[in-house]
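Hey team,

Filing this mostly as a record. A colleague (T.K.) asked me to run one chain through the structure pipeline before their review meeting, and I want the input and output archived in the tracker in case anyone asks later how it was produced. No errors, nothing strange. Just documentation.

Input sequence:
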Amino acid sequence: MRTNTFAYWKGKVDQAIAISDNHLSDDISIIRIADMLCVDAQTLARRFEIFHQESFKQFSKRRKLEQAGGLLRHSAFSIGQIAAYCGYATPQSFTKAFTLEYGETPSYYRNKLYLPNEEETLYITKVITASDNELKEVFCMENTTEIHEGTFTLYCAFLPSQHDPIRNMVKYMMAYISRLRVIRSTLMIPEARIITGTLDSVPVTTYDKMMMYVGLLVPNLGAYDLVHRQLRTGFGDFQLLEKHIPANNYKHLKVNMGFAEAGLPMYNFINHCCRVSYFKMNSNQFFISLTGVNECEVFIPCEKRYGC
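Output structure:
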């Protein structure tokens, strides 16, 4: 592939985002990332800004603060713990940066009933997916189980967005799932989950900047070493990105509906449970496992000391 093509640089920019996402607590620079990707740093920086309408530095700062906002919203972590998780040296430097970005302190933000863009994001999702807001008979604590999962590597692709991520997720998802099923069959790993989610902190991230993904979740066990090597080599033009998924405790819920229909009531369930402390999340990265056309499984990472 020619190194001046749109597809080539879109791939490199996506890889830069994946690397950044795996180093949320680090102050990783575009120069270091370019070195890892074997490309010119200035060219990568220019291409990144073309694709995302913001510099890599602005993007990284925004992503850190959005992740912090999500943890303020759904976790029981202290402000100091959240500051460290998001790469700030002190709670004071985090509070200053957060207040400049959002116009209010982390403490005030944590206690807000609704976030500025929350109702808009949820309304758009409801219209596009035609899903029910609640489905309380399905999304309830009685239907959840508590499980522990070891570490995984997620091999994923970002779904096309065009500033309308949910609509394009629904539009393109089945094509991506079909390709992942072929890869799963080729590598003879039927147990690898096909999952979808967002890299972002919902609903802190504004709707048009959300990044949806779909990918294969593969255990980090010795029996899968060859599979990992093959997935890192790539499959033709389908270059998968890598995301590290640490060992965690999850609230697990099986539902008889498709991923699009499940998204909105899943979020409302999570939001309600965290507010009333049925459980607290220890990460923003909940996801849906796509087990069938009209069935899926929800995984919500949560703190052991808070009901998980």
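Quick notes for T.K.: Residues 6-110 form a domain with the Arc Repressor Mutant, subunit A fold (CATH 1.10.10.60). The mean pLDDT is 93.
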